[in-house]
Amino acid sequence: MIDISAMPFAKLLGIRTIEATPARVVAELVVREELCTTNHILHGGAIMAFADSVGALATVLNLRDGAGTTTLESKTNFLAAVKLGEIARAVCEPVHVGRATMVWQTRISREDGKLAAIVTQTQMTLSRGPA
Fold first, then answer.
1. How many whole angstroms separate alpha carbon 91 and alpha carbon 16?
2. Comparing C-alpha atoms, which of 32, 33, 36 is closest to residue 44?
3. 12, 57, 103, 107: which could join 96 in a potential S-S bond, CB 3.0 to 4.6 Å?
């Protein structure tokens, strides 16, 4: 299994891979104080970075040899707060897996199972060729 902690920013956030297949990535994030707003809830930017990292891993699992990826677009719906000390869980599944682009939906839930955010992102496939 590819571990998301090999990605430097994901490692900084403290994201832990639970499951990683080409059809589904599941990861967790402990909500630490440095990831929170002044109200002790997970910052929206941290939620977006969590989802972007998980979507990037899902894309990497579907790339052809030698290809890379970058995020083209990301949209987040915030639905509920995740509090300091809780574990946020991300489940990322494909909407579209193509040769040039991939679209992923990541559902982030709180410990009580309530949906906290839905993130839809588009990843572009980058060919590795001569510079």
1. 12
2. 36
3. 103
- Reduce the DSSP state of residue 64 to 3 states and report it: coil
Q: How far apart are CA 127 and CA 22, in angstroms?
A: 19
**pLDDT single digits (tens) 93-130:** 999 999 999 999 999 999 999 999 999 999 999 987 55
Q: Is 21 helix (H, G, I), strand (E, B) or coil?
A: strand
Residue with tokens 């967790």: 28
Q: Which two tokens stand for residue 27?
A: 């990861």
Q: CA 26 to CA 28: how far, in whole Å?
A: 7
- Residue 5: DSSP 8-state: G
